[in-house]
Specification:
The protein is of the alpha/beta class. The chain folds into 2 domains: 3-57; 84-183, Oxidized Rhodanese, domain 1, CATH 3.40.250.10. Helices cover 47% and strands 12% of the residues.
Length: 187
Amino acid sequence: MKPDNVIRLMAGSFVLISVALTFFVSPWGLLLGLFVGTMLIVSATTGFCPPTLLFARFGWIDSNGNVSPFAKQPVETPVPSITPQEAADRTEANQALLIDVREPDEWRNGVAADARLLPLSDFRGGQFLWKPFLAEAGERELCLYCGSGARASIVARQLIAQGHRVSCVGGFSDWCAAQQKVRSALA
């Protein structure tokens, strides 16, 4: 057993013993102590700690693994958004590159006419398509879209953090609604 787990197991046992003594003072202290002691023992023996999962979901766990609910949360980088018409104009003027970050199975419904198909999965994975593309893109703006705009925003934030000029066009449905050119993904 790891030293950290031994400490948790001892702490959990200590809490449970304290709970037995607390029972004579307040039954609510008993319930709280039972909960804390049980969580410490479960965490030590199984490595699974439900409160930690809850704290992580709220973003209360810092990079060192410490719980800090009142710590300043990182500010998300705002992603500039543009209309499909603006993206088409910039792409046509060779000022920008249009990128579809949807997955290949979504491309069967069509893609924007001038779009490069670079899926989010490749961006998060080995970047076999993204690395060469970014190397050849140079200083041009990258205009991203996906199905609804959410995945494009995820990629855009990371690209902005890497120093690229990026804007988000939204979703493919926005592109179609603006009556911009569409082509088959197979072409």
